[in-house]
């Protein structure tokens, strides 16, 4: 991706107008989906007509834009020669239609292009970032958002999204933690499968986009949280944790996978045959196709794994990468490899088939174009925006609420709003927004927290932004857009802003401080060494709190931050993440109690970066933290998180009781039902997320102190009790043992806990016999 730098200056996003008249209005009628068998039959018939070069062409994904140093011209000539199977990084609808015309009308076999793009959390209506949606602990949130994204993408000519990212992230320093579902394989699996369902529907058809599960696999374990750095993961950890959400997405029918960038145990993932062939295809039976990450095939040489580009093509292809994303290594080298017999034509056919099948199943041969006149209406649909507001509020996590500071009274007279993020349309949607991806403004109209509060409270707002935080090192997108780094504020400026913030706070009933990170501070190539609130935000917070006025801290961020001071001194903290286009309104909905928050943390919240990597499902040490002297505790800090995995408050309170098992002794083939009663003990309706954790007390390997094995988000009226049932059977109790090298349920005793987070204390025991 770093090669994308400077692209924008080329002006490549400006559609070429010359061919537009030729394509307007050319849209075929809606088609019925093909069965898999029919798609296979047609793909086989087509394959028989293809030359070797045309087959290699289908394995080439070309940049649909000019990128200096990488793609020096638009891919038209190659498309016309049948040398491009797919394009990416182009979302201008007219331009996509134009390129599709070149493919369909000029190439010998008229094979349409498969258009791929990173539609990560919405197209124009931007949903909360994936880490936020995972905080809903409600897979229906992911499914609904991605279904809307699929409809929008198809209307705009994109049939393939490089989503979901299902990388487990145990280290908040890693910038890409924002793109996934956090640290847990069970929660991550539910969110991964929901996204696949949202994108593809029940089966791939003319209304679906293909999902692409990434980054296969282990990317989140990058050493030190440094993006792209090597991952060293023992096989048992890899199978029991990192691979689990990938397998869930595969079982949900994901059409494609993306191979990761980094070295996995010394073998780059993009050239790793064990991973891409033995595990993905042989063990799991994956029938779709694998695309490399961008330029990753060419980069096998940079890794010091391939001798030269031909060797890189050979290693990636024989490992199991079907399609080369943007490095042009396949198109230049695969024909030579086939000619020399190092790659057989039969292997080539096997690689091409799933790509052709996908094109048939998507209905592309019947209907390759989009109706340009309908795109804007679809992308700006009020239904999409209403859905976004609902899902955003559902994804927020209330971290602290002393003295019922929240919800706020609707009759507030004076509110001080602090922090530049409060009014930043650029940041509230987070990163990876389609139309804003290359630094453009995008076409959405994000509602900021300040705008939403003004809407509700009129002129009673006193806003003090302070100086916006800035990255010390530019983001890849700053570099593309040529955005200049702003100098840090002078001492005089800081003093002045602090004085203004204090005065505004002193003159208010309540202070709403909207603090966190710029959207560009997380994402790809956006790892951090600290988790501090960047810039002058901490000083502003301390200044307004010193006035004694109640402070509500609203966090906009893509990773947990070091908020120890706030946790000690600020009465209310709402984690809003990057809540999306309607995010400001959704924050206001929660602050004023129109929505009762019910989200839970999908990550253990560290006190400071020094605790990372930090996760709840670690193994027991022989000297756990609560031992008196020989202890795994740091001598200067607890190893415990500030807020545990699964934690989140509500305006309601809940009680968990009567944890019981239908059978407290089962054999390895049997299942027991876990039942627990959940009661809303407050006077307001609200959501609770019931969570079930287990621990295997002894066996052929040490097992994590706790593992999530069931959860459900429910709404309870005041005083209402619901009895919830979960199953514990083979699926939940088994693990991959490093000794037996098998998935197995081992006989022994299991702890079972139920409650509201990963520290739940309601306990039962389950005995499993042979
Ligand atoms: C690189 C990123 O790692 C990946 O997540 C993304 O899908 C591709 N670039 C394509 O933009």
From TrEMBL:
Gene Ontology molecular functions: beta-glucosidase activity
Signal sequence, start to end: 1-28
Keywords carried by this UniProt record: Carbohydrate metabolism, Glycosidase, Hydrolase, Signal
Stored Pfam families: Fn3-like (PF14310), Glyco_hydro_3 (PF00933), Glyco_hydro_3_C (PF01915)
Domain named Fibronectin type III-like: residues: 688-758
Listed EC numbers: 3.2.1.21
GO biological process, one term: carbohydrate metabolic process
Family under the similarity heading: Belongs to the glycosyl hydrolase 3 family.
Protein name: Beta-glucosidase
Species for this entry: Tunturiibacter empetritectus
């Amino acid at each position: 991706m770093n090669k994308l730098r400077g692209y924008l200056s080329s002006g490549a996003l400006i559609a070429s107008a010359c061919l537009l008249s030729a394509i307007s209005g050319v849209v075929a009628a809606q088609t019925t989906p093909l069965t898999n068998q029919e798609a296979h039959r047609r793909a086989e018939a087509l394959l028989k007509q293809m030359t070797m070069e045309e087959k290699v062409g289908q394995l080439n994904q070309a940049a649909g834009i000019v990128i200096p140093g990488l793609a020096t011209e638009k891919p038209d000539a190659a498309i016309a020669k049948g040398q491009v199977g797919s394009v990416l990084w182009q979302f201008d609808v007219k331009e996509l239609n134009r390129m599709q015309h070149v493919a369909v009308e000029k190439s010998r076999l008229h094979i349409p292009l498969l258009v791929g793009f990173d539609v990560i959390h919405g197209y124009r209506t931007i949903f909360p970032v994936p880490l936020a949606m995972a905080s809903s602990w409600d897979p229906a949130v992911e499914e609904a958002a991605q279904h809307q994204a699929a409809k929008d993408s198809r209307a705009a000519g994109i049939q393939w999204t490089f989503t979901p990212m299902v990388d487990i992230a145990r280290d908040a320093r890693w910038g890409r933690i924002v793109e996934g579902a956090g640290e847990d394989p069970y929660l991550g699996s539910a969110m991964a499968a929901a996204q696949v369902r949202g994108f593809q529907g029940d089966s791939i058809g003319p209304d679906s986009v293909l999902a692409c599960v990434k980054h296969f696999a282990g990317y989140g374990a990058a050493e030190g949280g440094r993006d792209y750095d090597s991952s060293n993961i023992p096989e048992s950890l890899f199978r029991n944790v990192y691979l689990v959400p990938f397998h869930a997405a595969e079982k949900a029918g994901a059409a494609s996978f993306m191979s990761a960038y980094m070295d996995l145990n010394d073998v780059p993932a993009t050239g790793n045959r064990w991973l891409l062939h033995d595990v993905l295809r042989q063990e799991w039976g994956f029938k779709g196709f694998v695309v490399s990450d961008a330029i990753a095939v060419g980069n096998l040489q940079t890794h010091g794994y391939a001798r030269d580009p031909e060797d890189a093509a050979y290693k990636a292809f024989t490992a199991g990468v079907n399609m080369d994303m943007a490095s042009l290594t396949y198109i230049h080298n695969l024909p030579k490899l086939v000619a020399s017999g190092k790659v057989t034509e039969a292997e080539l056919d096997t690689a091409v088939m799933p790509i052709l099948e996908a094109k048939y199943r998507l209905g592309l041969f019947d209907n390759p174009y989009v109706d340009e006149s309908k795109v804007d209406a679809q992308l700006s649909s009020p239904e999409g925006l209403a859905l976004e507001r609902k899902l955003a509020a559902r994804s927020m996590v209330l971290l602290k609420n002393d003295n019922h500071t929240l919800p706020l009274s609707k009759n507030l007279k004076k509110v001080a709003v602090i922090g530049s993020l409060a009014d930043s349309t650029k940041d509230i949607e987070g990163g990876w927004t389609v139309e804003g991806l290359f630094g453009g403004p995008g076409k959405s109209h994000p509602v900021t927290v300040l705008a939403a509060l003004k809407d509700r409270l009129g002129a009673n707002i006193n806003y003090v932004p302070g100086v916006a935080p800035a990255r010390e090192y530019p983001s890849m997108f700053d570099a593309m857009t040529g955005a200049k780094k702003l100098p840090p504020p002078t001492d005089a400026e800081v003093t002045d802003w602090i004085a203004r913030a204090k005065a505004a706070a002193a003159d208010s009933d309540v202070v709403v401080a909207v603090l966190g990170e710029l959207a560009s501070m997380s994402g790809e190539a956006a790892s951090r060494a600290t988790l501090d609130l960047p810039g002058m935000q901490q000083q502003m917070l301390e200044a307004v709190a010193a006035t004694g006025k109640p402070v509500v801290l609203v966090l906009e961020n893509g990773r947990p931050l070091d908020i120890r001071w706030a946790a000690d001194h600020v009465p209310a903290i709402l984690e809003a993440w990057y809540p999306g286009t309607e995010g400001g309104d959704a924050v206001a909905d929660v602050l004023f109690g129109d929505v009762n928050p019910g989200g839970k943390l999908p990550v253990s919240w560290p006190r400071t970066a020094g605790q990372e990597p930090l996760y709840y499902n670690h193994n027991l040490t022989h000297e756990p933290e609560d031992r008196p002297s020989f202890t795994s505790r740091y001598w200067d800090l607890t190893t415990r998180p500030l807020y545990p995995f699964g934690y989140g408050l509500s305006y309601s309170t809940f009680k968990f009781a009567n944890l019981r098992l239908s059978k407290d002794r089962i054999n390895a083939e049997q299942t027991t039902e876990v039942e627990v009663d959940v009661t809303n003990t407050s006077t307001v309706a609200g959501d609770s997320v019931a969570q079930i954790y287990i621990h295997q007390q002894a066996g052929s390997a040490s097992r994590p102190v706790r593992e999530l094995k069931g959860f459900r988000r429910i709404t309870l009226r005041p005083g209402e009790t619901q009895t919830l049932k979960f199953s514990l059977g083979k699926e939940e109790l088994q693990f991959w043992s490093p000794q037996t090298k098998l998935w197995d349920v081992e006989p022994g005793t299991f702890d079972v806990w139920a409650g509201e987070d990963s520290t739940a204390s309601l306990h039962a025991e389950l005995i499993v016999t042979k």
